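Subject: sequence -> structure tokens, single chain

Hey, anyone have a minute? Need the predicted structure for the following. Not urgent.
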Amino acid sequence: MLISYDFGIDLEEYSIRGTSNHFPLLDECPNCKCLAPGNIHRTGYYWRYGIIEDVTKRIPICRLRCLVCKGNFSILPDFLIPYFQHTVHTVLGRLQRHLLRKKVNGGRQLMGFHLKRFIKNINWIHSYFSDNGQVLSVSKDVKKKPQNI
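Reply:
Had a minute. Here:
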């Protein structure tokens, strides 16, 4: 399970701090909702890449484990998209430029990949923002972006 967390910094600063980042301490297991203190243990880190435009950084992702349910989860910085190497701002910026028919940095094939994945997940994206208090409507034209009401 991935838990998105706002570190209040960007990819550059996060990579400089490395494992010295201020990772959150969880009081409750997101899986079993156990509240017993000391049941969430940090089990280490795994390393992944974060890409912003043409800069690639190798960054640590903190792993945690609940001693009650044996569930594993990771603290993912909020500027990263799960299972993507490119940051949220990079992907959304490229998609926006593409949809506005402006020049896009990066390869045509990568842009096509991001566009297909965005369209495929548009309902999930809509639900994410709706759950976080944004009121959106989705056009029947999948190439149009969601509009604020």
